[in-house]
Design a protein that fits this description.
Length: 142
């Protein structure tokens, strides 16, 4: 699988993530792996046009081949990267791929971490003893 295929898979997942926020973890995992390997580049910081509940939010602009993506910034990023002007006219290339194939590519490139500490240990549910009807119905309520 090529870097371009991975970039297209991230692009497809990013487009679907607005309706299925769980997909953001796929995007973040793949981009972090690409950054670690030196195959993606942090370009700079941009103020988010849709900051959510915050008044302002700085996002990292990451380039992978000819695709650009935003990630939430860290303190280190805010110290080391410069703030860029936001250009709303810029668009990523239009590419098509099924969401199923995109997830397969991302999982093959950067498998999900299965950590035992994130899982709750399943304990048998304790049964509460049945006491009977309410005090009101038993006639002991005054």
């Amino acid at each position: 699988m090529t870097i371009r295929e991975i970039a297209i898979a991230i692009y497809v997942i990013n487009n679907h993530a607005k309706n299925a926020p769980v997909l953001y973890s796929f995007k973040n995992r793949a981009i972090q792996q690409l950054l670690k390997e030196g195959r993606a580049e942090k370009i700079g910081l941009q103020y988010s046009p849709n900051p959510g509940k915050a008044l302002q939010r700085l996002d990292i602009l990451v380039r992978i081949e000819d695709f650009f993506f935003h990630l939430p910034s860290t303190k280190e990023d805010r110290r080391t990267l410069k703030v860029l002007e936001y250009d709303s006219n810029f668009r990523n290339p239009k590419e098509r791929m099924s969401i199923f194939r995109a997830k397969q590519i991302i999982n093959a490139y950067s498998p999900p971490v299965k950590s035992s500490e994130n899982r709750k240990t399943l304990l048998p549910k304790q049964q509460t003893p049945y006491i009977g009807l309410s005090a009101y119905l038993n006639g002991t309520y005054k």
